[in-house]
Amino acid sequence: MAKREVYDVYGAASRLRVSVAAWRWAVGSGLVPVADAGEWSWSRAVVEAADPEAVRAALRV
Fold first, then answer.
1. CA separation for the pair 35, 29 (Å, rounded)
2. Which partner for 23 in 13, 40, 47, 49 could form a disulfide, CB atoms 3.0-4.6 Å apart?
3. What does the pLDDT read at residue 59?
4. What is d(CA 17, CA 51) in angstroms, rounded to the nearest whole number?
Protein backbone atom coordinates (compact mmCIF):
# COMPACT_ATOMS: atom_id res chain seq x y z
CA MET A 1 0.00 0.00 0.00
CA ALA A 2 1.44 3.37 -1.04
CA LYS A 3 1.73 6.17 1.48
CA ARG A 4 -0.45 9.19 0.96
CA GLU A 5 1.53 12.14 -0.40
CA VAL A 6 -1.09 14.91 -0.09
CA TYR A 7 -3.67 15.58 2.62
CA ASP A 8 -6.78 17.73 2.47
CA VAL A 9 -8.24 19.34 5.61
CA TYR A 10 -10.07 16.17 6.62
CA GLY A 11 -7.14 13.87 5.92
CA ALA A 12 -4.68 16.06 7.81
CA ALA A 13 -6.98 16.31 10.82
CA SER A 14 -7.59 12.59 10.76
CA ARG A 15 -3.88 11.79 10.44
CA LEU A 16 -3.13 13.84 13.56
CA ARG A 17 -6.28 12.69 15.36
CA VAL A 18 -7.52 16.24 15.88
CA SER A 19 -10.79 17.87 14.91
CA VAL A 20 -11.12 19.61 11.56
CA ALA A 21 -11.89 22.81 13.48
CA ALA A 22 -8.61 22.49 15.42
CA TRP A 23 -6.66 21.95 12.19
CA ARG A 24 -8.28 24.96 10.51
CA TRP A 25 -7.67 27.11 13.57
CA ALA A 26 -4.02 26.04 13.68
CA VAL A 27 -3.62 26.94 9.99
CA GLY A 28 -5.33 30.29 10.49
CA SER A 29 -3.20 31.12 13.51
CA GLY A 30 0.03 30.25 11.70
CA LEU A 31 0.80 27.23 13.89
CA VAL A 32 0.65 25.04 10.80
CA PRO A 33 2.07 26.30 7.49
CA VAL A 34 -0.36 27.33 4.78
CA ALA A 35 -1.33 24.69 2.25
CA ASP A 36 1.74 23.83 0.19
CA ALA A 37 0.33 21.22 -2.20
CA GLY A 38 -2.61 23.10 -3.68
CA GLU A 39 -5.66 24.88 -2.34
CA TRP A 40 -6.33 23.48 1.15
CA SER A 41 -3.89 20.60 0.56
CA TRP A 42 -0.76 19.86 2.55
CA SER A 43 2.20 17.67 1.72
CA ARG A 44 2.85 14.61 3.84
CA ALA A 45 6.01 16.25 5.21
CA VAL A 46 4.07 19.23 6.59
CA VAL A 47 1.39 17.06 8.16
CA GLU A 48 3.93 14.71 9.73
CA ALA A 49 5.91 17.67 11.09
CA ALA A 50 2.86 19.19 12.79
CA ASP A 51 2.61 18.73 16.55
CA PRO A 52 -0.82 17.22 17.34
CA GLU A 53 -0.79 18.49 20.94
CA ALA A 54 -0.07 22.03 19.77
CA VAL A 55 -2.88 21.79 17.21
CA ARG A 56 -5.31 20.58 19.90
CA ALA A 57 -4.18 23.37 22.22
CA ALA A 58 -4.68 26.00 19.51
CA LEU A 59 -8.43 25.89 20.02
CA ARG A 60 -8.14 26.21 23.78
CA VAL A 61 -6.33 29.55 23.63
1. 13
2. 13
3. 80
4. 11
Say how far residue 53 (Cα) sits from the centre of its chain.
12
In this predicted model, what pLDDT tens digit does every residue of 35-59 receive, in sequence order? 999 999 999 999 999 999 999 888 8
| Cα within 13 Å of Cα(26), Cβ side | 26
Q: pLDDT tier at 3 (50, 70, 90 boundaries)? A: confident
Contact criterion met (CB below 8 Å) for 17 and 54: no
Task: Give residue-wise pLDDT tens across range 19-37.
Answer: 999 999 999 999 999 999 9
End-to-end CA distance of the chain: 38
Determine the angle formed by the axes of helices 9-16 and 20-29, rounding to 10 degrees: 100
